[in-house]
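Supplementary Note 3. Input sequence used for the single-chain structure prediction.
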Amino acid sequence: MSNASGGASWDRETLPEGDEKKQAVREMFDAIAPRYDIVNRIMTFRLDVRWRRRTVRDLALPSGSTVLDLAAGTGDLCIDLRESGLTPISIDLSYGMLAADRSGAPRSQADILQLPVRDRSVDGSTCGFALRNLLELPAFFDELARVVRSGGRIALLDVGIPKNRAIRFGNNIYFGKVVPKIGALLSDGAAYRYLPKSVAYLPESDEMVAMLRAAGFSDATHNLLSGGLTQLLLATRD
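The predicted structure, written as C-alpha cells, is reproduced below.
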C-alpha cells in the first residue's frame, strides 16, 4: 500500500487511522519480519529479552496453562512461555511475521480484535509491543475478556513514556533519531521512523487500566519497567 507521494503507507508525517492503519501495520510488519529480531536486540541493548521474561513471570500461571500470545510476531514470547512450562499459541495479523516464527508453537493468522477462539477457552494471554497498533483498545480488552477463563491472567507489554524528565529527554532523542538510523541500516527506515511515533496512539495508563476493569479485569494494574521505557499491564479475569 502506498501513500499519495508513492512511498510506503507508514512513511508519512501523520499517523494512519482506521482501516488504513490496519493495512499499513500488516504490510509494515510483513516488510520488517526478516530482520525484526536482530534490530530489536540491537536497538534495545537486549533489554527486550528481560522485559519479555518479566512479562511471563508476572503472568503467574501454573505449568501446563494454555496461553494465547497475541500479535506474536516471530515468536519470542512464545519461546519464553514454553520455557516456563506453559503452552503457547501464536496469533498475528502479519503473515510475514508468522512465516519467520521459530518458536514451534501452533500459529494462526488473524485479527486479534476478532480471535478464532471459543469463549473462556484459554488460561491466559500475552501481548508484546502491539497495543499501539490496534484500532480499538476497548474492543481488544473485551475480546480478551471473552476468551480468557475466569481466574485466567493477562500480561500486556508495550513501550512507555518515562516520567523522569531526563530519562524521557534521552529516550525521545534515542528513539526519535537513533532508532530510525539503525532501522534504515539493517531493515526498513520508514518502519523505524513510524514505530517511535506510534506511541502517540496509546492512552494514558490510568485510562487503559479503567478500560481493562470495565471489560472484566477488576484487579488490573499498570507497571513501569526500566524507568518507564516500557509498561506492563497485568490483570486477572473476574
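Residues 1-6 have pLDDT under 50 and may be disordered. The radius of gyration is 17 Å.
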